[in-house]
TrEMBL record:
Name of this protein: Trafficking protein particle complex subunit
GO CC, one annotated term: TRAPP complex
Compartment(s) of residence: Endoplasmic reticulum; Golgi apparatus, cis-Golgi network; Golgi apparatus
BP GO terms, sorted: endoplasmic reticulum to Golgi vesicle-mediated transport
Keyword vocabulary terms for this entry: Endoplasmic reticulum, ER-Golgi transport, Golgi apparatus, Transport
One Pfam family this sequence matches: Sedlin_N
Lineage of origin: Eukaryota, Sar, Stramenopiles, Ochrophyta, Bacillariophyta
Coiled coil regions, renumbered to chain: none
Organism: Grammatophora oceanica
Subunit structure: Part of the multisubunit transport protein particle (TRAPP) complex.
UniProt family annotation: Belongs to the TRAPP small subunits family.
Tagged with keyword Translocase: no
InterPro entries for this protein: Longin-like_dom_sf, Sedlin, TRAPPC
Keyword Transport: yes
Length: 138
């Protein structure tokens, strides 16, 4: 059995803007497991849209459950979706993770060299997201 995988994706209006996998053991997951995880996140997008109409909160909590995996989502004011696939984490740690990543995203979006709703390629952003994940999701 493989170690728990966490998959974090930032989804823009039409495409994924950022993707990161966090694996506790540091080993890579198999291709089929990775494809399945992306499929689970992709299939949850409609549920995110539906959940967004039922609350004014940015943190939508768990919007989908598949097998032992859950999809938690945070929706920004600009309709950018932060989605985390996990196997059951505390709600407080996930909320804190999303809030810290949102702060990083807001700082990135204020950068004059970043165009809104385009893929995020900044290495510094990736490094900081991974630090936040280690702090809250390990």
């Amino acid at each position: 059995m493989s170690s728990p995988l966490l998959l974090f994706v930032i989804v823009g209006k039409n495409e994924p803007l950022y993707e990161a996998e966090f694996n506790k053991s540091g080993s890579l997951s198999s291709d089929s497991a990775t494809r399945q995880n992306y499929f689970v996140l992709h299939s949850a997008l409609d549920l995110v849209e539906k959940a967004a109409w039922t609350t004014t909160n940015m943190y939508l909590k768990v919007v989908d459950k598949v097998n032992q995996q859950q999809v938690s989502t945070f929706l920004t004011a600009g309709n950018i979706k932060f989605m985390l696939l996990h196997s059951g984490r505390s709600e407080d740690s996930i909320r804190n993770f999303f809030n810290d990543v949102y702060e990083l995203y807001v700082k990135l979006s204020m950068n004059p060299f970043y165009r809104y709703d385009t893929p995020i390629t900044a290495k510094s952003f990736d490094t900081r997201v991974r630090q936040v994940a280690r702090r809250y999701l390990s």
